[in-house]
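Weekly puzzle thread! Below is a chain. First person to post its structure in token form gets bragging rights.
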Amino acid sequence: MSATARGATSRGATAEEDRLDQLRRGASTDDARRAAVELLIATGLVREEHPWVLHDSGTWWIDFDRATEAVDALTVEHEKWGLTPSLLSVLEMAASLADGLTVHLRHVLPELDDEHTSLVMAAIAEAAGHPDAEPPQA
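Winning reply:
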């Protein structure tokens, strides 16, 4: 079986790696968008079937307007997409970082599980220009 048939691109990267690289490049010039994209990647919210992940002529990108619309629509039917309340909160936070969606932290934060809380906090630090920030030690 050829490398291309196994899902590798001509540069040796898999189709998945190429897609993730394109998503990252699309947000590389803006700290907040880059943080939002990395948050979505880290939580698995960049699957091809997600309505906010778009593809055209070999290019992949995140449509944060669609992500914002999806937050409202998926609040009722998030199970259809396999989104837990925690993942829905992650999507809402990413849309806020990237496009300024108003988020009511009092409602969003309690829905985050431990892992997603850490990822959201790291994304906020990156969006603020502090990608290497460490949480204070108790």
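Puzzle host: Confirmed. Bonus trivia for everyone else. The mean pLDDT is 85.
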